[in-house]
Amino acid sequence: MEVANSIDDENQRRDRLPERRPTTRIHMPSTAPSVTVIGLGPMGQAITQALLNAGTAVTVWNRTPRKADGMAALGAKRAETVAEALDANDVAILSLTHYQAMYDVLSHAAGHLSGKTIVNLSSDSPQKTRAGARWVLDHGGSFLTGAFMSQGDDITHPLSYVFYSGPDEVFRAVMDLLIPLSPAEYLGADYGLAQLYYQGLLTIFHPFVLAYEQALATIGQSGGDVDRFTPYARRFMDSIKDFMDYFTAEAKNGGWGDVASLRMMHAGAQHVIDTSNDAGVAPPLTHTVQDVYARAIAASTEARPVRSYELISEVELSSGKRP
């Protein structure tokens, strides 16, 4: 009787258990993702370390073996030749000085490009980028252009990101592999777009560096305190964002400014030049700015102002033709 009661109790307990459902088997990759990195300058080393930290198996090659040895000490596999580096993985990331370096390096192993995806994160012009893409495609490979917008070589900085351009299907195929390298900004199928946007931002950055150094030198050599000045400069840069929206809208309509505005900007540039000269600071950048305003004023009439944007945009300006 006790046994029967025990069996009944067990049956009731089982009835209260949730119904078992068939188990869905989740397929897990048997191996870690893998990639090749060619070029181990500061950025190439940062790329390699980010990939290794993400658990990616990395094969590296560099023209000078010492840098490859340093990455091997962190867990990367060192390839002895470019051909070996390409054969190691389906995807190879290039981090070189320019696109000519890509030809210099890969031409020795061009027969190993077939079926490979080359992600070139080197800097160059959009036209040279497109030509580089065609060269890889002609050798049977796929190509993706990339351009780092990073704080120096700190690709882990929260403001860092990467422009990519090339065929959508190529980007999607390697997107997960590239995630450790900073957030991705995919711009479109044109191979030149990533470098176009990258060089556009550097067009702002290069004169900014010189202009800020000129400002610091002028402040410092005129008895001011550069540490006190810097917070004001940072606040001023915040206001520049609004100017960008304004000038973008004006550029779509041919540019900003009438003749009176151009004369005001020309005079303002002279005040900067005078202040710099008084401090014993060379102001070459401001002279260049003033020259553009002077040429715009000279080419203008009251009825038809020639805006600085027009002068900058006209390729034939170098031949002396009026826009």
Topology readout:
Blueprint: H1 2-16, E1 34-38, H2 42-53, E2 57-61, H3 65-72, E3 77-78, H4 82-88, E4 91-94, H5 99-106, E5 117-120, H6 126-138, E6 142-149, E7 161-165, H7 168-178, E8 184-186, H8 193-221, H9 226-251, H10 259-278, H11 284-299, H12 308-313
Parallel strand pairs: 1-2, 1-4, 2-3, 4-5, 5-6, 7-8
Antiparallel strand pairs: 6-7
Structure description:
The structure is a single chain. The protein is of the alpha/beta class. The protein has 2 domains: 34-189, 3-Layer(aba) Sandwich (Rossmann fold); 222-319, no CATH class. It is built from 12 helices and 8 strands. Strands 3-2-1-4-5-6-7-8 form an 8-stranded mixed sheet, sandwiched between helices. Residues 1-33 are annotated as: Disordered. Residues 190-305 form the NADPH-dependent reductive aminase-like C-terminal domain.
